[in-house]
Amino acid sequence: MQIIDARSLVPKDKKGRELRKRTKKIKRIVIHHGATKQGLDGTNYLSYLSFHINNLGWSTGGYTFGINDDGSILQGYDIDVITNHVGNYNGDSLGIVLAGDFRVEEPTPEQWNALYWLLNHLKSLLGDVEIVGHSEVPGYSWKPCPSLDMNQIRRNAANYSEKEIKIEVPKQIGGVQTMSLLKRGDKSPDVKTLQENLNTLGHQSGTPDGIFGAKTEAAVKSFQRASNLTVDGIAGPQTLGKIDALLKQKNKVTAPKKESATFTLGGRKYTIQEV
Ligand SMILES: [Zn+2]
User: Fold this and answer.
1) How far is the CA of 275 from the centre of ligand 1 (A)?
2) How remote is the CA of residue 146 from the centroid of ligand 1, in Å?
3) Tens-digit pLDDT profile for residues 190-214
4) What is the pTM assigned to this prediction?
5) Do 180 and 235 touch, CB atoms closer than 8 A?
6) Which of 79, 111, 146, 149 has the fewest other C-beta atoms within 10 Å?
7) What are the chain's domains?
């Protein structure tokens, strides 16, 4: 496997702003999807960067690396350059985007393979870093990005070896991330996401700390009661699915509007949407 050096192909910032260098050690690798469907002209790494720079006026595109649907891995920025993808966390986060819209489709086998290879390659370069999905970064739990099962991705990345590729393909059901059952006594980033989501939906679980205690259980029960679900205080597929559906609805009303735009690159017309 190899990385294609795309640094000279990334559009230049029209305002000529200097690339910002990291002053902090990279703590996490953040996985995104491009939120445009595979097979469209604009569904590739360089088009996403071009959209960010030329259409949205950002000083850099969002991601250091991109994996296209044919499994090619492209690098648009040096690892020590800060790119715009997770707000306040850009300084110590490295972004990877997979071309595609995983709310409605799945990464290709080539993309999965390239992703696991790249994650392992980066871990060997960067040492101990976390691997998270965009929606797992604090403040982004509302964002359906990358709409993939991150627990399974972390497991597969840990089990990956280039010679013998055994990959359990992450499941995705109708755009809802599959999550394990969450119940009292659990401690995990998924619990934290659940707490944030319950709070957002008005069922107060206290300060999101990733620990499923009495308050979280009460909030889950309150949510289940309000949603006419079995009231058992356990967040399983039904409860998590309902939360997801309500957040999506809420999102439509309150989230900043996603802009889609058309632009031309190399004589071709692309339509893409903000990620
Ligand atoms: Zn994202």
Assistant:
1) 6
2) 6
3) 889 899 999 999 999 999 999 999 9
4) 0.61
5) no
6) 79
7) 3-173+256-273 (3.40.80.10), 180-235 (1.10.101.10)
